[in-house]
TrEMBL record, chain A:
Phosphohistidine, modified sites: 79
Organism: Stylosanthes scabra
Primary location: cytoplasm
UniProt keyword annotation of Amino-acid biosynthesis present: no
Organism domain of life: Eukaryota
Domain HPt: 38-143
Keywords of the record: Cytokinin signaling pathway, Phosphoprotein, Two-component regulatory system
Taxonomic path: Eukaryota, Viridiplantae, Streptophyta, Embryophyta, Tracheophyta
Free-text function comment from the UniProt entry: Functions as a two-component phosphorelay mediators between cytokinin sensor histidine kinases and response regulators (B-type ARRs). Plays an important role in propagating cytokinin signal transduction.
Name under which the protein is recorded: Histidine-containing phosphotransfer protein
TrEMBL record, chain B:
Transmembrane segments: none
Taxonomy of the source species: Eukaryota, Viridiplantae, Streptophyta, Embryophyta, Tracheophyta
Superkingdom of the source species: Eukaryota
Record bears the keyword Phosphoprotein: yes
SUPFAM superfamilies: CheY-like (SSF52172), Homeodomain-like (SSF46689)
Keywords: Nucleus, Phosphoprotein, Transcription, Transcription regulation, Two-component regulatory system
Positions where 4-aspartylphosphate occurs in the chain: 72
Record has Cell wall biogenesis/degradation as a keyword: no
Species this chain originates from: Stylosanthes scabra
NCBIfam families: myb_SHAQKYF
Gene3D superfamilies: 3.40.50.2300, Homeodomain-like
Name of this protein: Response regulatory domain-containing protein
Length: 151, 520
């Protein structure tokens, strides 16, 4: 597969992710920040987000498993995750966080558990899609091409 | 850096606002990295900190090492508002608060604690580019306060502000420029030397400044006492003092300092004699006077209405940003940490019960000119963005600054009208392009990638096996997340076409994932 095709795929995949709400404008902002002085900026930031995610999701799981549940603690984790997801433009994740926070405030355990599952799901999807995106980028660069920017 | 009360050399050297020294405090390392990058792109000099205590230490070590502080609201070791207070009191630097949470009560809290701005995450480059205005505004304020110190060249400031604007501001805050110009004109003895810019240079350009002599100050205090500190306002004081060459602004700034002084006194008294504090001292600082605040803010309002005519395009939104900043800085200077009651007309009744429970806060009646400023913001959004329909009616909650206005839509909407968001953002969980009913295998795989990362469905083709290795879970965590290996070959991204529902809801437990949860 040649560079042009790869680039097209990349563009389309990213556009799809944005269209479907996996990513929002913040992601494009991150791409704009990337330059010669930090050529892997986006990947680095996303990696940090992944680490953060796993950490926070873990914390949430633990917190929801306690008896009795400390909803304030859960909320704190969710809030943090909301901020984290906003940093990379993970729109769907962020939105689930918002719902999650409402359930925390209402001290609705069932709702919280559902949200956690949904978060895990969304995160999983996002991670896969992003990894695919980066893989495409790698391939393009390896083939000597440049990464197309998304407007 | 020497700071003899004038605008320090570093702030206003050639090329300002480049080189602005910013301290960023955020416990989220991802954000810290992003903000650092963004600020560097603005040519600012950035120092990052992930702990508030660390930040304070840095600030205390060298009081003039930074020009401005940007801090997140939620931090593990210290509440962002606490940090804000400390910085305001000890270092008197402008502080900008940040949060992913744009809830009005939080914003108000920021304002009360003295924040000069409140940015909503994700923060835009544009917002960061403009932070130099806070620094300049504060310096100008300070310049007016410390009358005994050297005057500074308004002409020069004017020039620099223009430069700064050309350099990095798309949306110029005309407020600061107008403010500068108008105060230049008002200074009767201002000696405007063209082309000369001296900052921090005490020897030459000595502008005639308002010197608050003992007599003058006594007149001032008399006037204040006569009117009553709770009813006092710069205009009233000015009238009573009957000093022809004194301007309202001179009085206003002096009044702010006076109030600050009184509140500090009050704090000291409270600490010293907890039981036997005089009633008199109780009442004074606690009621800096709603009318004053209102006056000064209304005055600014009036200024803006004329500005509005001049700049219709940038007009509303920018004005409000400036207006808010202006009011915020006024509030900031008056009394750090007052509670504002009586803002019911912006519909924050329930939120204020929580605010009222704040300890160590001083209460005064304050009616912010919210009806004017904030109401207009949503209207503007209406023009720009159909999404904002849902918040148009929410006069009470929208942003207090344009930075919030733009992002508030995103924050408010999920909580309040998910269905709207669902539609607008095109969350195609159930709508699919009917045209692509027959999906070649490759596209099917692509759809899987986007939607169905989990296992459970039967592969149509062996290729799927390569493409989606379902078995891996995260070792540590055990909640069924799968690592999907990237395939060696690539697919035509036909994308979300007819994704069968079972793909999306593939995990056994996902009967729970229904639209209502997702969107509501």
């Amino acid at each position: 597969m040649d560079v042009l095709q790869l680039q097209r795929k990349l563009r389309e995949h990213q556009a799809a992710m944005i269209r479907e709400g996996f990513l929002d404008d913040q992601f494009s902002q991150l791409q704009k920040l990337q330059d010669e002085s930090s050529p892997d900026f986006v990947i680095e930031v996303v990696k940090m987000f992944f680490d953060d995610s796993e950490n926070l999701l873990n914390n949430m799981t633990r917190a929801l498993g306690q008896v009795p549940v400390d909803f304030k603690q859960v909320d704190a984790h969710v809030h943090q995750y909301k901020g984290s997801s906003a940093s990379v433009g993970a729109a769907r994740v962020k939105n689930v966080c918002a719902t999650f926070r409402n359930f925390c405030e209402a001290q609705n355990l069932e709702g919280c558990v559902r949200c956690l599952q949904q978060l895990q799901h969304e995160y999983s999807l996002l991670k896969n899609n992003l990894q695919y995106l980066f893989r495409l980028q790698e391939e393009i660069q390896a083939a000597g091409g440049s990464i197309p920017t998304i407007e | 850096m020497e700071n003899n009360g004038c605008l320090p050399c570093t702030t206003l050297r050639e090329g300002f606002p480049a080189g602005l020294r910013v301290l960023v405090v955020d416990d989220d390392p991802t954000w810290l990295k992003i903000l650092e990058k963004m600020l560097k792109k603005c040519s600012y000099q950035v120092t990052t900190c992930c702990l508030a205590t660390e930040a304070l230490k840095k600030l205390r070590e060298r009081k003039d090492a930074f020009d401005i502080v940007i801090s997140d609201v939620n931090m593990p070791d210290m509440n962002g508002f606490k940090l804000l207070e400390h910085v305001g009191l000890e270092m008197d630097l402008p502080v900008i608060m940040m949060s992913v949470d744009g809830e009005t009560s939080r914003v108000m809290k920021g304002v009360q604690h003295g924040a000069c701005d409140y940015l909503l995450k994700p923060v835009r480059m544009k917002e960061l580019r403009n932070i130099w205005q806070h620094v300049l505004r504060k310096r100008i304020h300070e310049g007016r306060e410390f009358e005994s110190l050297e005057g500074f060249d308004f002409e020069g400031i004017h020039h620099f502000m223009r430069n700064g604007q050309d350099q990095c501001c798309d949306d110029v805050s005309l407020f600061s420029l107008e403010d500068c110009i108008s105060s230049t004109r008002k200074r009767k003895d201002a000696d405007n030397k063209h082309g000369e810019r001296e900052f921090g240079d005490s020897s030459s350009t000595k502008k005639a400044r308002v010197v608050w002599s003992v007599d003058l100050h006594q007149k001032f205090v008399q006037a204040v006492n006569q009117i009553g500190l709770d009813k006092v306002g710069p205009k009233k004081i000015l009238d009573l003092m009957n000093v022809p060459w004194l301007s309202r602004e001179n009085v206003a700034s002096h009044l702010q300092k006076y109030r600050l002084y009184l509140s500090r006194l009050q704090r000291q008294r409270d600490q010293k004699c907890s039981s036997s504090g005089t009633k008199h001292s109780d009442s004074n600082p606690k009621d800096p006077g709603s009318s004053t605040l209102k006056n000064s803010m209304n005055k600014q309002q009036n200024v803006f209405s004329t500005d509005n005519l001049r700049c219709p395009n940038n007009g509303l939104l920018q004005l409000h940003e400036a207006d808010f900043r202006g009011t915020v800085s006024e509030l900031n200077n008056i009394v750090p940490g007052p509670n504002m009651t009586n803002v019911s007309h912006i519909g924050l009744d329930q939120t204020f019960s929580s605010l009222n429970s704040e300890g160590n806060s001083e209460v005064f009646d304050c009616t912010l000119p919210t009806q004017y400023t904030w109401n207009q913001v949503p209207q503007r959004k209406l023009q720009d963005d159909p999404k904002s329909q849902s918040i148009a009616s929410m006069d009470s909650s929208p942003s207090a600054a344009s930075s919030i206005a733009s992002s508030a839509v995103e924050n408010i909407i999920p909580a309040q009208s998910k269905s709207l968001m669902g539609n607008d953002l095109g969350l195609k969980t159930q709508e699919f392009d009917a045209s692509l009913s027959l999906i070649p295998d490759l596209e099917f795989y692509q759809q899987n990638l986007l939607w169905g990362g989990e296992g459970g469905f039967s592969p149509l083709d062996e290729d799927l096996h390569f493409f989606l290795l379902q078995s891996e879970c995260y070792d540590d965590m055990n909640f069924g997340m799968h690592n999907i290996e990237m395939p060696e070959y690539y697919y035509d991204p036909g994308l979300i076409a007819d994704v069968p529902n079972h793909l999306f809801y593939d995990s056994a437990d996902y009967s729970l994932v229904d639209q209502s949860l997702f969107i509501a």
